[in-house]
């Protein structure tokens, strides 16, 4: 009996040693290509992206990264001090993708301007995306739902103002599967505002020092097409997204970028705003509309 117990213990020890010596799984297949850039103290390096830059995560503070005013897709890099150690940089763009760089210092860089729109698609890695497996409505139904939302009662009062522009949340309706977010955009300036594109995402709003940005893109099912908002005027917009809720430390963000301009419209919501959603009146009749 004691001999059997001893043999069992020895077998367990051998198995444990075998598993402990096995290497962990490699992430090589999930890696993306890193681009090497030389940065200088006396020269500015300019990166031109195909989409607006949302954020940039620097490996060290001595690497300075700033967005160019009025040009949302340009990032400027410069050394904060000479001979800083090799580091890295991850740039997050509005298309929900990431570009990675390995940064080294040099006094005389051979190249200082890069057009990233020429990069092949496999240099990007997309973050997680919240979306529906299918769109439950056709174009006609979505247009009718847009009208139904904008003519229904407004019951929310969240707003954001900047550069004489205002974006306000008026209501959130749902049909059980889709949320219809009614926004009102007011242009209080004498200059027309031309939207270029809209971006929706979820992000943790607890800012931890030196942490990377973690975002979940929310795929829009529909949004009102607004070609232009003249000066001193107001326009309504409806955005349809999959139904979701948020944990305590996350916010839902909506950003509208200006074409050939720097007026970014930004509105963020907490879970308490999403939970005030109401059933959309008449959506059942609209859903039965012949395609």
Automatic annotation (TrEMBL):
The keyword Signal is annotated on this UniProt entry: yes
Sorted UniProt keywords: Signal
Signal peptide: 1-22
InterPro entries: Conjug_transposon_TraN
Protein name stated in the entry: Bacteroides conjugative transposon TraN protein
Source organism of the structure: Filimonas lacunae
Lineage of the organism: Bacteria, Pseudomonadati, Bacteroidota, Chitinophagia, Chitinophagales
């Amino acid at each position: 009996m004691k001999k059997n117990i001893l043999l069992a213990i020895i077998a367990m020890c051998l198995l444990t040693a075998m598993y402990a010596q096995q290497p962990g799984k490699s992430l090589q297949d999930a890696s993306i290509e890193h681009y090497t850039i030389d940065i200088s103290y006396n020269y500015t390096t300019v990166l031109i992206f195909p989409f607006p830059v949302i954020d940039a995560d620097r490996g060290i503070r001595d690497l300075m990264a700033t967005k160019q005013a009025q040009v949302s897709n340009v990032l400027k890099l410069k050394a904060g001090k000479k001979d800083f150690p090799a580091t890295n940089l991850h740039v997050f763009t509005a298309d929900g993708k990431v570009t990675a760089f390995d940064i080294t210092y040099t006094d005389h860089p051979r190249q200082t301007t890069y057009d990233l729109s020429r990069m092949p698609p496999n240099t990007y890695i997309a973050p997680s995306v919240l979306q529906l497996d299918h769109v439950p409505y056709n174009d006609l139904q979505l247009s009718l739902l847009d009208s139904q939302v904008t003519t229904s009662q407004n019951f929310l009062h969240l707003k954001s103002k900047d550069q004489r522009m205002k974006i306000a949340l008026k209501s959130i309706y749902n049909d059980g599967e889709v949320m219809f977010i009614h926004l009102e955009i007011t242009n209080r300036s004498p200059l027309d505002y031309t939207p270029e594109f809209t971006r929706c995402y979820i992000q943790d709003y607890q800012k931890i020092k030196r942490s990377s940005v973690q975002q979940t893109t929310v795929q829009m099912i529909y949004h009102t097409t607004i070609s232009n908002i003249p000066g001193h005027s107001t326009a309504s917009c409806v955005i349809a997204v999959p139904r979701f809720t948020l944990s305590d430390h996350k916010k839902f963000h909506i950003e509208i970028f200006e074409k050939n301009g720097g007026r970014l419209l930004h509105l963020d919501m907490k879970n308490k705003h999403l939970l005030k959603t109401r059933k959309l009146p008449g959506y059942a009749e609209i859903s039965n509309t012949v395609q």
